[in-house]
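Many introductory courses stop at the sequence. We go one step further.
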Amino acid sequence: MRDVVIGLVTGACLLLGIACGPSLRLEEQSTAYFEHCHAAERDPRATPDERIACWEAWIAHWSDATSSRSRVAYAESRLRALRACKEGNIVELADDLLDDAGLGIEDAALAVRQALGD
């Protein structure tokens, strides 16, 4: 009887591992690409167009694979901010940062300077 229970538990664990494997792998790849885009934000060699393309690709291909809705919101917010900055719409950029991210004026000013590459 004990061998049967051990066999059933082992089989159940194996099935769960196989079933969860692909989703865990996708989550890990989504996280890695998110971190890649996040690192590009701090890389002075990355152009605004490259940063925009990175976030667009992450949203298009990896946002469904993440369980973190806050990452999706962050990526969308960064994309809006980068586009507004590229278009020279600093007022929209500051308003977006203040409203969506809940930033204070000092944090918004710092984010605008970072987006501009200063």
